[in-house]
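hey so i finally got around to running the thing on that chain from the lab meeting. sorry it took forever, my laptop kept dying and i had to restart like 3 times. anyway pasting the input first so we r on the same page abt which one it is
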Amino acid sequence: MTTTLIPILSAIAAALVVLAITPATMVLARRVGAVDRPSARRIHEHPVPRLGGIAIVLGFLLPAVWFLPGDAAVRGLVAGAVLIAALGVADDILGLQPVVKLAGQIACASVPVAAGLAIDHLTLPFVGAFDLGAVQYPVTILWFVAIVNIINFTDGVDGLAAGVVGISATTFAVIAASLGRADAAILAAALAGACVAFLRFNFNPARTFMGDGGSMFMGFMLAGIAISGVMKSAAAVALVLPLVVLAIPILDTSFVILKRIKYGNPVYSADTTHFHHRFLAIGWSQRRTVLSIYAWTALMSGLALAMRFVPYTDGHGNWNAGWTLLLAAVALIGMAGAVYMVYVLEILKWRSEPVVQIVRRRRLTTRQ
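ok and heres what got predicted. didnt touch it at all, straight out
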């Protein structure tokens, strides 16, 4: 029951809280001035409140606090997530300097690590498990900070981050439950429920944004869930699965950072080189862009689930030909999706017109 019914109840409870609280966060955002206003790199035309992340946090916390036992590592993860959400809300209201945000992220990541949640070993296919020793602590902090910023970078189009995290969290919930990791399954399900409910207000055209308070919180929880629910298990693909599930946001962020380094721009600088911006630049609508990235993410999640559940070996190193072919077919479908996206983004090329102008011109045409 713990690994099946309770995660489902957690998702439902989180969703109901988000649906009930989000309108109040919109009012609060306007009163404190946490409003995202149109600018040269913004694609929305009207001011939008950006404290919706508070609803996601509160929706998540209800089942997390209610259902989970008093495990120190779990308490540390939830405490760190609440702290990083507070850091994000402060940034939404005050506008913190990048170095301050980074220092805060490192401090927040240290909370679950100090409580015992760390990547103490890695399990690799064909290699097996090996201990990290003292290196586990900086490696774990780096993992937290990396995923927090990856999800934060993803939050650039209506509904994108919430949908991608919702799909990823659902996948982690299934994998964690199958590995007997009840705590991680409950946390992942609660996060998924909160994200899906938030789309009611955040899908295009968005009435509210989650802000850094929401995106950093979601990234922090995904990072912790990946460790406690998958990486710390003895599964042969323990390291590979989180990387496959989060492949799209990881690739997006890697591409953007490398491009900024290539042109000598600060890594933390804002630009319009993310996947979602590039889709918009070739003429896709926001909805088509977001739904396509959802599909791409779901495809990779499906591959991760296949890697977990398809019995391609008998556990003793002997490969089953039929199941191996099935897994290979799923992997080929995933690769085909990636090739298609590369074709769309690279072969079709960019339009010379800026992304913001494309979106606004399309809106004017639609109104006429």
